[in-house]
Amino acid sequence: MASSSSSSSSEKRWRYDVFLSFRGKDTRKTFTDNLHKALERAGVNAFMDDSELKKGENITAELEGAIRGSRISVIVFSENYGDSIWCLEELVQIMECKNTLGQLVFPIFYHVDPSHVRRQIGMFGPAFEKHEARYVGTDKVSRWRTALRGAANLSGFDIAGRYEGDFIHDIIGEICGRLNNTYLHVADYPVGIDSRVAYICNSLSVGLDDVRMVGIWGMGGIGKTSLAKAIYNKYIHSFESKFSCKC
């Protein structure tokens, strides 16, 4: 009962599927807008801040709540991302949520070199020279540098000369796959199931360009449903769509 309650409370915590962090002057009306619309078409509830002008240096409580209430944060690193104190404070919050709430974080490198983000050089260099001069004696810049290093070291997406439509398609596929991967409960103590799963999986030849149908037959109570669920869970990451039923 404890694990069921924990799972239920986790689901209720999420207000949004995705939080989009981006530099408005770079991508609001171009890449990020296209990505947001693609997420909506895919049925993903994504939060995108609509306010053009940010006031002050601290993000609002509403925005912080949106970050904490999102299952996945997507960070669009672009040319002027490092200039924005607002974006950097968002990033710190996102990385804190990753560490404390288990939030998934995907960096997108939109015409910026991931190593430049990681090391704050290149396009990010002049911005951080200004930050260092402005915030002498505070820990702000060190927190931003730590957050950038952490985010840039995560597995993400680099456009690197690709067509934007194909690039967005791959991002949507990855996000939808993560959101839809709900594992089925097999059993508390699935003794001896691994060898049976391996036997059937060897017959499936997953990865071949064909269709396989497997029937599991036997008397009641011997674990047919548990076996089917275990196989489903094993391959849940491999398919764009899936469903389960008990006949």
UniProtKB/TrEMBL annotation:
Endpoints of the signal sequence: none
SUPFAM superfamilies tied to this protein: P-loop containing nucleoside triphosphate hydrolases (SSF52540), Toll/Interleukin receptor TIR domain (SSF52200)
Database matches in PROSITE patterns: TIR
Domain TIR: 14-179
Record-level Gene Ontology MF annotations: ADP binding; hydrolase activity
Keyword Membrane (UniProt): no
Pfam families hit by this protein: NB-ARC, TIR
Classification via Gene3D superfamilies: P-loop containing nucleotide triphosphate hydrolases, Toll/interleukin-1 receptor homology (TIR) domain
A GO biological process held by the record: signal transduction
Keywords: Hydrolase, NAD
Protein name: Putative TIR domain, P-loop containing nucleoside triphosphate hydrolase
